Amino acid sequence: MRYVSEFRNPDLARRLIGQIKEECGSRTYRLMEICGGHTHAFYRFGLVDLLYPSIELVHGPGCPVCVLPTKRLDQAIAYALNPKVLLATYGDMMRVPGSRQTLVEVAAQGADVQMVYSPLDALALAQHGPEKIVIFFAIGFETTAPATAVTLLEAKRKGLKNFLVFCNHVRLIPAIIFILDTGKTAIDGFIGPGHVSTIIGAKAWRPVVDQYGKGVVISGFEPLDLLQSVWMLVRQIKQRKPQVEVQYRRSVRQEGNPIALGLMEQTFDIRETFEWRGLGWIPKSGFEIRDELALWDAERMVPYEVTEGREPRGCICGDVLRGVRKPWDCPLFGKTCTPQRPIGACMVSSEGACAAVYLHGRHSHRVRLGLQEKVPPETLTHR
Ligand code: SF4
Fold it and tell me: What's the CA gap between 107 and 77, in Å, rounded?
């Protein structure tokens, strides 16, 4: 396959793994792969085992479905239960458990819930079905926020009166800084997310280097991308020269995507604070719809107070998202919680760490070793 197989060359992969192990020597480096897409690729291509024990991966909060707190999902479910509303959202959200139900379950009971591939699909539903109020349940990092921005501007241009957005877009870098500030997760460096960085630009990661002295290598998603990124990051750490490097140069620029950033600026303000599953309230970590577009903001037009927000009993998604525990530390992992019958968000989403380990890594040496070791989180300290 052109432009893919080049990045899966086994000989080059073997050479890179050899170079990484040589660089690491007898030391283990703990690297946080922030993005859920990277987590899946590391497990899917067997890189976790091949790099062990030189590299230990710490999974980060880069799965947008996983980091949404249950309360916000409960609010979306409450919207969906309103007979005048059609709730539209991405497929990943449909099976995530709320406090009592999932969106799929309320749809089975008669609520109007539709899966869409893009917010513009939701806008089309509003145009073609004026008898319902269409609420688009918007989630995601800076990667998907520009598409929501375009849709909001389009709704305003068309003067649509039956289209609203329930905005849950979040900003990734404040969450990483929050994790570093809490100091509970030992991390030597970061494998930066390729897609988010395509929008925000490499230079947005400077605070991680300047204020915390941690290196960042922004990576692509194929095996050779990831191995090269690991090698670049280990070299930075060894040489004690942290910096922001871009391995994924075929997509990421220093300044990001100015058109997407401009659209987001026209459309969103930054919230004072926003709640993340497992991390709690993080300052400046969420987007809200600007006052000029208040007529299309579901939170202002259909206010709804949700008080519950119960997390599934026994689920440790929050610890997994902070990188303090591994999916296999969860007593429910692979027993009562599987991708077919997920209990927590990290097992539902195609980017969730629990799903990645279950689908691609549960028979690996590293995971089996972890299943035996069960390292208590309090033994992890900040280096
Ligand atoms: Fe939650 Fe399931 Fe992961 Fe356990 S295995 S942390 S219950 S998603």
Answer: 10
Buried/exposed code over 1-40 (b: 16+ C-beta within 10 A; e: otherwise): eeeeeebeeeeebeebbebbeebbeeeebbbbbbbbbbbb
What is the mean predicted confidence (pLDDT) over 180-192? 91
pLDDT greater than 80 at residue 377 = no
Token pair for 372: 């035996």
Q: What is the pLDDT of residue 378?
A: 37
Give the pLDDT confidence score for residue 303 in this predicted structure: 78
The pair of structure tokens assigned to 89 is 């959202």
Q: Rounded to whole angstroms, what are the CA distances from 13 to 43, 51, 225, 260, 348? A: 15, 11, 10, 34, 30
Residue nearest to atom 5 of ligand 1 (CA): 333
pLDDT at 3: 75
Whether 65 lines ligand 1, by a CB cut-off of 6 Å, is no
Residue 168 has pLDDT above 70, yes or no: yes
> Is the separation of the CB atoms in 248 and 220 below 8 Å?
yes
Name the residue of 39, 96, 313, 347 whose CB sits within 8 Å of the most ligand 1 atoms, as the mutation to test its pocket.
347
CA dist., res. 224 & res. 293, Å (int): 44
pTM of the model: 0.91
Q: Does the pLDDT at position 1 exceed 70?
A: no
At which residue do the structure tokens 């990484």 appear?
20
- How many C-beta atoms surround the C-beta of residue 158 within 10 A? 12
